[in-house]
């Protein structure tokens, strides 16, 4: 790099990382620093998200140019999944929102870190030289107006080390556009305490979506760490099958308490699903697919399919039944496919285009039969009916995949190839 450069991390996050030929390698996810007892924190590398949502470590010694929007590397990219070491701190995930104490030279008082600047020195080391902080107004508590913002030397604050209660506003601001699965990956990579802090700041709907994408250990830890009333509200807005899976993973006393605190109707759905073996159609199904009567118009059916809370797999078809429309419904008549509805006049009734040849599942049918029917008929969901021909739920292909894949599939590394690779173990950055 030709001259010293100062880069603020909040603006660097999300920047594209390029190899020397100009091909994109990934995007900057975070910056790794070592906080020392004396002297400014030392930045040692970047956490880069490469294709496949894998996060890898890129030593700053491999960076030839860095500015807002673009980072150029030597082309040597470590393909091992990044694992944070004990002495390391992630700037975005762990320093942002940290409360610190300002030196008297800066007016003293408490402040919250909102950004950090890294700057290359003459010896080519990168140091955290500046912090953008927001001074806390005395006596304001958590709901005070925003205090004064100022840029201070990193040496003018104390409290960068040690465990403390942190907010999550700055980190969440960098994550607001992520899909639930990607946000789940971020939470998985955070230290345990920070994971709960960030999860607690998500609204109920967003947290419910993320819990549906997290592995068992992480989501159990989060739910157990929430206040029971909050945890029950989140379970209420989860898909019933996902809520049942999660409740089934909790300690028995915790599960019983949360079911008592949930909305009665939602809790009843969860209890009903818990009664089935998890490897049967009953254990895999959701009790809330798209259900309409035969007199509903195609326009109405399409409106239901457009709802944000409906997964793509379930939006591909509407299940047509006689009243009542809540599961267990009246007699199941058949399904109407989304593609077929798009070809017909919107004012026509869906009862005129019912596909009644779809083979239904019984609650006790094994997962093998479910997968065979989905594959045979190229479907994304199948109806589940009881002995009286009433619709009790539907099994979607995404839920089947969750059960067929290994328990740790969310943590498994994808196969990624690079023209030049160097294992992180060969790089000294401590």
TrEMBL record:
Every CBS domain range: 354-412
Species of the source: Beutenbergia cavernae (strain ATCC BAA-8 / DSM 12333 / CCUG 43141 / JCM 11478 / NBRC 16432 / NCIMB 13614 / HKI 0122)
Lineage, highest ranks first: Bacteria, Bacillati, Actinomycetota, Actinomycetes, Micrococcales
GO molecular function annotations of the record: magnesium ion transmembrane transporter activity
Record keywords: CBS domain
Protein name: MgtE intracellular region
GO cellular component entries: membrane
PROSITE patterns, sorted: CBS
Residues in coiled coil: none
Pfam families per UniProt: CBS, MgtE_N, SH3_actinomycetes
């Amino acid at each position: 790099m030709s001259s010293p450069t100062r880069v603020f991390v909040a603006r660097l996050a999300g920047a594209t990382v390029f190899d020397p030929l100009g091909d994109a390698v990934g995007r900057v996810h975070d910056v790794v620093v070592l906080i020392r007892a004396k002297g400014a924190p030392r930045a040692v590398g970047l956490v880069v998200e490469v294709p496949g949502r894998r996060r890898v470590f890129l030593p700053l010694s491999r960076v030839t140019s860095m500015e807002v929007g673009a980072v150029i590397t030597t082309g040597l990219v470590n393909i091992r999944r990044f694992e944070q070491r004990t002495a390391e701190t992630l700037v975005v995930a762990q320093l942002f929102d940290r409360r610190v104490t300002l030196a008297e030279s800066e007016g003293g008082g408490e402040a919250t870190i909102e950004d950090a600047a890294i700057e290359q020195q003459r010896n080519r080391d990168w140091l955290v030289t500046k912090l953008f902080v927001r001074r806390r107004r005395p006596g304001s508590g958590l709901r005070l107006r925003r205090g004064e913002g100022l840029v201070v030397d990193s040496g003018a604050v104390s409290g960068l080390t040690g465990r403390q209660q942190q907010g999550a506003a700055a980190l969440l601001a960098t994550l607001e556009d992520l899909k639930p699965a990607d946000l789940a990956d971020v939470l998985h990579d955070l230290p345990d305490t920070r994971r709960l802090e960030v999860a607690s700041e998500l609204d109920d709907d967003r947290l419910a979506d993320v819990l549906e994408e997290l592995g068992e250990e992480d989501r159990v830890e989060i739910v157990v760490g929430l206040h029971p009333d909050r945890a029950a509200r989140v379970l209420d807005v989860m898909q019933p099958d996902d809520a049942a899976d999660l409740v089934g993973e909790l300690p028995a006393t915790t599960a019983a308490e949360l079911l008592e605190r949930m909305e009665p109707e939602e809790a009843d759905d969860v209890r009903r699903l818990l009664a089935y073996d998890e490897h049967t159609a009953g254990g895999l199904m959701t009790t809330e697919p798209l259900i309409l009567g035969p007199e509903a118009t195609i326009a109405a059916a399409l409106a239901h399919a457009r709802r944000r809370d409906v997964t793509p797999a379930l939006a591909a078809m509407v299940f047509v039944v006689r009243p009542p429309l809540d599961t267990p419904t009246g007699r199941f008549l058949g399904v109407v496919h989304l593609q077929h509805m798009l070809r017909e006049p919107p004012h026509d009734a869906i009862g005129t285009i019912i596909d009644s040849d779809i083979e239904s599942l019984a609650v006790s049918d094994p997962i093998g039969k479910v997968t065979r029917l989905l594959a045979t008929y190229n479907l994304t969901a199948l109806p589940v009916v009881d002995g009286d021909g009433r619709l009790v739920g539907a099994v979607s292909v995404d839920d089947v995949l969750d059960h067929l894949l290994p328990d740790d599939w969310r943590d498994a590394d994808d196969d990624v190839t690079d023209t030049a690779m160097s294992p992180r173990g060969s790089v000294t950055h401590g």
